[in-house]
Each structure stands twice: as structure tokens, then as C-alpha cells.
Amino acid sequence: MQNWKRFFQKHILERGYDYFETGSVLSLEKTENGYRAEVEGTEFYEVEIEMERGEVTDMFCSCPYAEDGNYCKHEAAVLFLIEGDFDNSRTDPKACSVLIFEDREKEQKALTEAVQKMTPDMLREFFIETAQQDETLKEKILLQYGTFGTEQIERLRTRIKDMGKVYRTAVNQMQFWDCEYDCDYDDEYDYDYDYDCDYNDGYGSRHDLEAAEFSYELCVFLDRYIPALLKRGFFEEAFELTNLILQESRAMIFEECYGEAGSVKSAVLKNWRDILSGCDENERQKIYRYLKSQRHGDYEDEISNFLIEEFHDKEVLAECLRKIDRLLRKTQKEQKQNPQGYDHSFCLISSRMDLMRKGGFPEKEIRAYRSKYRHLPEIRREEIQEVLECKDYRKAIAILQESRQLDRENDALIKRYNQQLIEIYRKLNDEEGLKTELLFKISNYMQHDLEAVRELKKLCSAAEWEQEFEKMLKSRQLVFFRLELLELEGQYDRLLAEILNRNSAAVMDKWEKTLREHFPDEVRDFYIAYVCRASKKTSDRSEYRKLAEYLRKISRLPGGEDLAKQIAAEWKVLYKRRPAMMDELRKAGF
Ligand SMILES: [Zn+2]
Fold it and tell me: 126, 180, 236, 252: which could form a disulfide with 261 (CB 3.0–4.6 Å)?
């Protein structure tokens, strides 16, 4: 296998190597003329490599990048794996098996003995030789023990900038195509709306892909080089490089890739903490001054938070608190003018409390601040959560009852409070409380489930239940559940009376199964009356078909067979001018 690397761009090759090294190639199988593999990336991709006489002739991958006609990193990863297999198969397998033992311990011993026999010079020579064949090992040695100075730092810096350039170029190219396509589209294809949508979707996902790649690369860079630099005491240099990475990642902020920029940002913040925990006071001060000068840029909040958390900077803290207070006043004013608009206050209050905690405010003071905003349901929600965590159920009930009053205009909240109260009363085995809340739930929020009714029944004495049940039947809110309630209670005579009263076949159909057991004659007669009435007004085929179905239903009920036949015979005389009806009757077997 030679020369396959020439198919790939350099950075794709590097990404492919990372994929190969981290074991992202999940499976590899030989095919008739090459290999097939599965690679884990953003999703699972299938890669096929075609080969002839040991050389790559063509390759495919199911990822969007490859589908655009590029050679992708998944293909590269698979080729790295295949190449390894090739090289191994070249060494004589028999020669290997003589030297490598079956028994691990024996092998370890033999290896130790062999190394012990080597002189320091032999060891060095062997080590250098090995490292020259192994890029990862080479880099590891140079990072840990090699000369490390301005030149090496400069190279790392260039590397970061190059990654940024690759990303920006890729993004700019996409925008260029996007724009050019739009012009075409206006002239010729303005009816083909779908095409435009498809195109934009593709653009968006490729864009995300690039951003995901870029942030992945930056994070890999941080992982690979920063800890090594810290081990060697290059704290300032490490800090400078992390800053450069943060700057480069800004390219993603403007491209609606906040998530990707965010993962780089949190990796950088973690590195900063590592740097601070190792460096001396002098370096610490330098970092502090630098960050303080940088805190009004893109990452204003993050840097300010970092200064507060790590340096306990009172000035920055006070400034941030003032800023939040200002925003909060503004939000409240807007809220007053437009009460329907979304209220951001809670978000601001939350972040202020967060800052107070980071700034070392006593918890009591933080709580006191929060209690000024108890009119906001979110604040009480937090309170409820806290008291529930301490299992102070009585206190939770008190806050919930209070909230029910305060938020009485908000149906969704009232419903939630009711549900929370039910759960608490269940835990406390408080039957009276539970009964009240279940009744509230039944009469306000009962939809299709009768669980609450069943639960309430269990809590009531027979006399109590009888009373509650009659109340429910009369309740206006439950008017649509009367039939369900009657069925649940097994009051079939009342159920029948109610259904006969409503006089609707659809309603009867729903309860037919229950009622035919107890009142088969009444059900049959109801349907007979219905079909006779309906046949007079019906005039289309689908209605005829339904009537014929009802006739079959009647004939399945006791004593119904003859009656159904009789009705059909009458219809055949009465409606002989309705051929569609005659047809449907025939089909139904009449
Ligand atoms: Zn691919």
C-alpha cells in the first residue's frame, strides 16, 4: 500500500489519524475487491475501500462531506487501519510465533531480561529508531524532554492559527456558493421552492459539521499540549496559547454555532484553572491583570465570572451585580408596560444569586435577596423544591396553598400545584387533604383517566362516596364523563336510560358491549328504531353500507336475526329504486 495519502488534504489526513487512533473504526471486513468498515463520527458512517493489487483505486463514505465529492477523514481512518494490517502481514507470521510466548507472564519476563541486557547506548539508539517510526511517540518525547523555547511555542501558535484559517475558509466558501445559487434561483427557478429549501438545509448541516470539526480540533489541541506544557512549567506560554484558542473560537460565535464555541470555552476555562493551580504568584498576577483588561470582549460574562470565582475580585463582582440590577430594573419596567411579554426577571435573579454565591456572600443574605421576589412563581418553585428536599412537607403544603392564591389566574400553575399537593398528601397518608385535592382534580382536570375517581372512592366511606358520586354526576364540569362514571360504578340501568335519552347510535356503539350483557333487548330495539328512522333520510352509498352493518349487528343480538331479515325485506320493497342500497344489502347477506 503506497501513496494513498495523496488523495487527502493534510488536515483531513490528520483528523483521520485521530479517528483511527481513538478507535473510531468500529468494524473492518474484507470484501471481494477491498474492504468495508463502520466508523463512528457525528453519526455512524459506512466506508468502502476498493483496491487492486494492494493499491487503493476508489473509496466511498456515507457522510455528507464525502457525498459532496471529497475524500473524508472516515475513509482516511479506515486506510490507516488497513495499512497497519498490511504491514503486520508482511512480517513472517512464523518468525513471530517463535519469539512471542503464549503465556503473558513468560513473555513479560523475557522482555524485561532482554532490555536489562541492553547497554544505555543501545537503549538510546533503539529508542530513537523506534520513535522515528512512530509520530505519536516522537511528539511525546519532544514535548516532555526536548528543547522547548520560543521556536516551539511559535510553531504551536501557527498551528492554532492554521486551524482557524481552515475553518474560516470552509465557511466562507459555503457562503459564496449559497449566494451564487440564490442569484440563479431568482432568475430561473422561482417556482421551485423545494429545491431552495433542500439546498439551505444541506448548507446548514455542513456548516455545523465544520464547526464541530473545528471545535473538536481545538479541544484535542488543548488536551494534547497544555498539560505537557504545564508539566514542564511553561505556565505563561500555556496561558497565552489557550487565549489564542479562545480568540480563534470566536469565529464560531457569529456563525450560530454557540454550542461548539461553548465547548471550546469550557475547555479553556478548565485549562485556566489548571494553570492557576500550578503557577507562582507572579504569573498569577500577570494572568489576573491580563484577564481584567480583557473582560469587556466577547466572553465578558465568562471572564468576569472567572475573575470573581478564582481571584475573588470584589470590584468586578460589584460591577456585575450592578449590571444585573440595572437589567432587572429595565425588565421589570418593560413587564409593567407589557404584562403579556416574556418575563426575564427570574433568569436575572438566578444569575445574580449565582454570582453572590461565587463571590462568597453568606447563604442567609442570598436567601433574603431572593425573598424580595417571591411574587414570581419560579422563586416559590425553588423554595418548594428546597423544602421538599429537606422533607419538610408541611412547609411545602403551606407554600403551595399560598401559591394557589397568588397565581390563581394561571391555569397551568394551578394544575401543577394540585398535582404536587396530591403527591405530598399521598406521602403523608393525609386522607382528608388527599380527598380535597382529588376532588379538585376530578372536577377541574379530569380528562380520560378515571384513576383519580377510583382513588377517591377508596378513601371515602360508603355513605360519603354515594354523596360525592351524586355530586359529580350533577357537576357541570363532569358532564362529558357522566357515562364513564356510571359505567365505573356499575349503574347500568342509569347508563342505559341516559343513552336512550341521548338517542345517538354512536354513543350506543361505545357502550354496546357493556349494555348488551345486561339489557340485550333494549339495545336491539334501540338499533331497530334507529335504522328505521335513518333509512328514510339516507341517500348515499356509505350511509347504506352503515345501515347494512347495523342490520348485521341487530341479527347478532338475541331474537334479532328474524327482525333484521324482516326489515331488509321491507326495505327491498320500499326502496327498490335505490340500487346502491340494494347492492349493499346483498353484500351484507340480506
Ligand atoms: Zn466520511
Answer: 252
